[in-house]
Amino acid sequence: MKKEITVVQKKTEVIEEATQQGGADSPYSLDVCAKLQQIVDDAQLIKKYPPSRYETGDTLFLNLIGVCPDNKATATFQIEKFVGGGFAGQVYRVKLLEIESNNSSSISDLKIGENYAIKILIPPSRFSFLFRNMVYWLAYQGPFAAQTNYAAARVGVLWQKLIRRGAKIYFGSEDAVVDTYATFYDSMLGSYGEVNEWVSGRNWKFEIDDEIFKRKKWKSLENIPDDGTVKSVEYLAKRKFMADLVRLLHDMGAPELARQYEWSTLKSQPNALKRIDGSENNYGGITAIDFRAGLALLPYLPMSPADFKLIIKGLFRGNLVQFDRSNLKKFDQFITKHEENFQDLKPAIDELKVREPQYRESLPDLTHQGFKLIYKKSLRKSVRLGIIKGWECKGLVDKEHRDKLDRSSVKFSAYYTLGILPFLGKFIRRLWSNREYSRHIKSIITQRGYFSRTLRAKQAHAMIDWYRDGRVTEKKAFKLISKPFVFWLQRFLLGWLPPKWFRFVTDGKFAWESIKYAVTYPIRFYRDAEFRETWLLENVNAGYEEGMLTEEEAQHIRENVKDPFIQKYLKCVAVHVATLPITQVISIVAAFYAMIRFGETWSEGLLYAGVVLAAFQATPISPGSLVRGTYVLYLMIKERNIRNYWLAALISFWHYVGYLGFPIQMVAKFPALSRLMAGRWATSIVHIIPVFGERGALLEHWVFDLFFNVPISIRRKFKKKK
Asked: Which of 134, 466, 630, 698 is deepest in the core (most CB within 10 A)?
């Protein structure tokens, strides 16, 4: 078989500002990244430093193997956008430029000029990569198989193809599950990957629902009507879709894959998108897009509320750890029952039955293999080969030493044991089994100037990620390369900080501009009507781009921006913005007073200060909310208008949620604007929470419902009683 290769051709002529999904959501120049990468290349080191991910404009040359049938082809893709990355890997939107079959057969589903999604099964984040691999090693005692093992990579796409056909049986349309076309190995990043259908879709809208308490009856709905009789149509449709998909996965013998769509994980909702390309199914075009788990589930490390239930169910199935293990016996029963629907996918079924055992037997997996590792020689050999292949993908072992480790059980055992040692173990193993790395270390010791070139290359390599995340500016990035002491000091002492915090601490000019902006912004917002209107229009445009508003709704708001009610709303937002610092300033002054007045020692003073600060944050009514509420009462009295202010007056006095007073008040006259502002408030609140605060996850919808839909539902109940 022709060796699989990946070559990346840098489009250095592409100089543009591209806002990518990343740590700081800030625009950055691809030209700067290319210049930094050029510094790495100019060092001419023996050891190579591959990028953590690709950039817009990069070209990938990939050797593909189709899913069904497994035809081979060579394809050229151009990256159009980095979509994002998590524990399972990194995703790109790409365009197919060329495809050439290796024989008379090709991958017919791939069309030149079309967009596809490429997923490479290695996280772009160093932390995500290390944490994922650590959890996986604790579960299976080997490298992350989907990244490093051909059989594991194939099993994932084969299951996805078959689940898609199962969706046709259960849901009436294959479009309910994203299609998958091919697998490949990316030698640049050292990982397997897959080519999938590109789905133009969005997360759910934040729907106004003044009958939210009726949602508990969602299970009794055979179909979700879209005629106005049921509120929160998209929310209910997604919940029912995900519940039905979980049932399908269990029926097909893939219970551990169902974890990707368990509602109560609180973070699975973004795995199902609503198509916006006109394609419909029984669930309003909702499509499952992700069947690659990122984190293994350990019995002592539940990571979501659903995991407690799943751990117990897994124990009853005999699975102490869970990731993507299937039940082939149940799968056979499902295929037999629906045999007429799988005739054209028989090659995929046959391959799955071959690859599944290969994948499982490539890992020690003590909870399943158990004593078989002692008495079954063939199993020990396959496990050894699987682990060695993983080491090779991660750059620990070269081809020469790969064969030596495979031939000697003693060397393999010693090498495996060395991996237990933190930091030092990895260094010793690479020195032992990677000739390129050992030459690199030798050159650092013996060659004059090689060490300084290595440091410079490592700094430039790190600067690419720092600059991309918004930790440093272009000027600061190149400056730090020439100041190794400052760079390494910041990396070790402050590298753990979030990007904006890091920049605030290390960049005096940025810190001053941030403080200046924080002080002047509320004043300008209150005094400048044109500035407030611009702010509103920016939010409307952002809401439209994020799918919170339709084109008609966005245009309606733009046309009515001069409406007196909207102008009053903007003025009240200005008051809210101006009152934000009040609580913080008073709480800091009070904490300082408590520390000086009551603290006899330094530690006691800090304790009193901490208690005061916590009390201010926990109190339901704050100094800032009192000022905000008083202002609304002032407007009510001044205009002698209770009808348009009473609800806003009640809510404005409350800490944290007072901002929602006017969005809730204007729900009748401007429902789209009301929904938009409450929705953006909800997302801004929850996104500071790691993992569960992800855009599109359940938590942001809960916050929106709690502070928006619940109040208007209660108001509706009161009106009915009258």
From this structure: 466
Task: Tell the residue number behind the tokens 């592409």, with chain if given.
Answer: 14
Q: Please choose, from the candidates 431, 423, 173, 419, the residue with its C-alpha nearest in 3D space to the C-alpha of residue 281.
A: 173
CA–CA distance, 482 with 476 (Å, rounded to integer): 10
Token representation of residue 666: 């204007």
In a 10 Å sphere around its CB, with 0-12 CB exposed, 13-18 middle and 19+ buried, how is residue 509 labelled? Answer: exposed
d(CA 430, CA 440): 11
3-state secondary structure of 667: coil
- Token pair of 335 as six digits: 């295929």
Question: What's this model's pTM, rounded to 2 decimal places?
Answer: 0.85
Peptide bond into 69 cis (omega under 30): yes
Location of structure tokens 């992700």: 290
DSSP for 425-452, written as a single string: HHHHHHHHH-HHHHHHHHHHHHSTTHHH
Q: What is the mean pLDDT of each run of 10 residues along the chain (722 residues)?
A: 42 35 58 93 92 93 94 95 93 96 78 96 93 95 95 97 95 93 95 96 84 75 62 87 95 96 94 82 85 94 93 93 95 95 95 96 94 92 94 90 91 91 88 94 94 94 94 94 93 90 92 88 83 89 80 88 82 76 84 82 82 82 84 84 77 75 72 81 77 84 83 77 61
Cα separations in angstroms, 423 against 429, 430, 699? 10, 11, 37
- 522 close to 577: Cβ distance less than 8 angstroms: yes
Give CA–CA dist 147/292, Å, rounded: 11
The residues near 104 (Cβ < 8 Å, ≥ 6 apart) are none
Query: What is the Rg, in whole angstroms, of the alpha carbon atoms belonging to the chain?
Result: 29
| CA 102 to the chain's CA centroid | 36
| Residue 711, CA distances (Å) to 94, 228, 572, 679, 718 in order | 44, 20, 20, 15, 11
Whole-number Å distance between alpha carbons of 6 and 60: 7
Whole-number Å distance between alpha carbons of 80 and 96: 10
DSSP for residue 669: T
DSSP secondary-structure letter at 322? B
CA-closest candidate to residue 144, choices 332, 353, 294: 294
Contacts of 698 by beta carbon, 8 Å cutoff, 6+ apart: 263, 266, 267, 269, 692
How far apart (Å, rounded) are the C-alpha atoms in residues 33 and 57?
12
Contact between residue 363 and residue 386 where contact means Cβ atoms under 8 Å apart: yes
Which residues have C-beta within 8 Å of that of residue 93, sequence separation ≥ 6? 79, 80, 81, 83, 115, 116, 117, 198
Q: For tokens 């396959």, name the residue.
A: 382
Instruction: Report the alpha-carbon angle 696-700-705, nearest 5.
Output: 120
